[in-house]
Amino acid sequence: MRRKITPVLLFLCLCGSAGFAHEPTAAARSGPSAQAAAVPLNLNSATVEQLDDLPGIGPALAERIVAYRTEHGSFAQVDQLNDVKGIGDKTLEKLRAHLTLE
What whole-number distance in Å separates Cα of residue 24 and Cα of residue 71? Predict the structure, then answer.
């Protein structure tokens, strides 16, 4: 009897765990993009690294945003991002939901 149960249990265990193989890990679910979507980022205090995680923003553009903020002072409106070279209307619309001003 034991010989029949062991292969069946093994089969059930393998089949049951196969469904979890495609489940993202906790680290994958809480990566930068998940964090960016969950909590709006303060445009006036965000670091280059934080800005780089936003959709449509790479490291060079993130550095330009911080440089613009350093040169011109805090952003009064998110729309001022249009003044940063490389940010147009489409990019601004992608970013709007991910940004806040404080």
Answer: 42
Q: What is the pLDDT of residues 66-88, one digit of tens each?
A: 999 999 999 999 999 999 999 99
SS3 string, 41-75, reads: EECCCCCHHHHHCCCCCCHHHHHHHHHHHHHHCCC
23 DSSP 8-state letter? S
What is the number of domains present in the chain? 1
Q: At 34, is the secondary structure helix, strand, or coil?
A: helix
How far is residue 24 CA from its own chain's centroid?
15
pTM value?
0.64
**Phi-psi category of residue 86: left, alpha or beta, with phi > 0 → left and psi -120 to 50 → alpha:** left
- CATH code of the domain covering residue 40: 1.10.150.320
> Nearest 5°: CA angle at 78, between 73 and 80?
60
